[in-house]
Design goal:
Elements (H helix, E strand, L loop, with lengths): L13 H19 L2 E2 H14 L3 H15 L3 H10 L4 E2 L4
Antiparallel strand pairs: 1-2
Length: 91
């Protein structure tokens, strides 16, 4: 169980927060146990409906990486490179 809080914007709606939390959980899965790259990318697409700007995505990704050690950028890059494989990141 993680001992950090997910980076969230309290101005988001409940539905938007769920989409963003789903991505953080998928990112954790990609490092801790593995997740299908296709599923990860689908979750990422949901996240992108909330976090549209690349600047905000990078800011949130850096915040999460500082808290957890898990890189959103690296996971997205790896999943896009091999969308038909299992995504298992190395910490």
């Amino acid at each position: 169980m993680q001992d950090y809080q997910y980076p969230l914007d309290m101005e988001w709606t409940k539905e938007e927060i769920i989409l963003v939390v789903n991505l953080w959980q998928a990112l954790e899965d990609s490092y801790e146990k593995g997740i299908s790259a296709e599923k990860f990318l689908q979750t990422y697409q949901g996240f992108k409906t909330v976090v549209k700007s690349i600047g905000e995505e990078r800011k949130l990704g850096r915040e999460f990486e500082k808290l957890s050690g898990y890189s959103l950028y690296k996971a997205v890059k790896q999943a896009k490179a091999h969308p038909d494989k299992k995504l298992k990141m190395k910490g």
